[in-house]
Amino acid sequence: MNTPSELRYTKEHEWIRIEGNIATIGITDFAQGELGDIVFVDVDTVGDELAENDVFGSVEAVKTVSDLFLPLPGKVAEFNEELESQPELLNTDPYGNGWIIKLELAEDVDASELLTAEQYQESLG
Fold first, then answer.
1. How far is the C-alpha of 123 from the C-alpha of 119, rounded, in Å?
2. Where are the domains of the chain?
3. Which residues are annotated as modified residue N6-lipoyllysine in the UniProt record (predicted)?
4. What is the distance between the alpha carbons of residues 108 and 89, in angstroms, rounded to a whole number?
5. Which residue of 14, 24, 63, 103 is most buried, as measured by CB atoms within 10 A?
6. How far apart (Å, rounded) are the C-alpha atoms in residues 116 and 124?
7. 8-109 — its CATH code?
8. d(Cα 84, Cα 40) in Å, to the nearest integer?
9. Distance of alpha carbon 103 from its chain centroid, rounded?
């Protein structure tokens, strides 16, 4: 299982790349493997200010639908529109072209609760 060390993670199986006040967010390799073939990504929160742990969208796989939880508070700035025609990018390139949203972080965000790659892997057991 691929878990890039430069990213941070949540127990809900999302990854976060923070660059300045912008966080790029997607689902982990583990999550896409558990979901199976992803057929649809729904994010209708672009422009919305959301709190930590709010649902910002959902991922639909052949057998299930899974909510996506915001790991940090902020404003949803962008949705990866490539996912509208190619939702399978979450399966084939979860840490690259399969990113889901870009989040404009709220001021004074505390990202210290996010897991390192090692902590995330330990949480999987």
1. 6
2. 8-109
3. 63
4. 32
5. 103
6. 13
7. 2.40.50.100
8. 7
9. 10
| Structure tokens that stand for 49 in this block | 């200010």
Residues forming a β-bridge with 27: 14
Do residues 77 and 46 touch, judged by C-beta distance below 8 A? yes
Which 8-state DSSP code applies to residue 114?
Answer: S
Cα 36 to Cα 14, 32, 86, 90, 104, distances in angstroms:
16, 6, 15, 10, 30
Sign of the dihedral defined by the CA atoms of residues 114, 74, 23, 84, in that order: positive
Cβ contacts of 44 within 8 Å, gap of 6 or more: 57
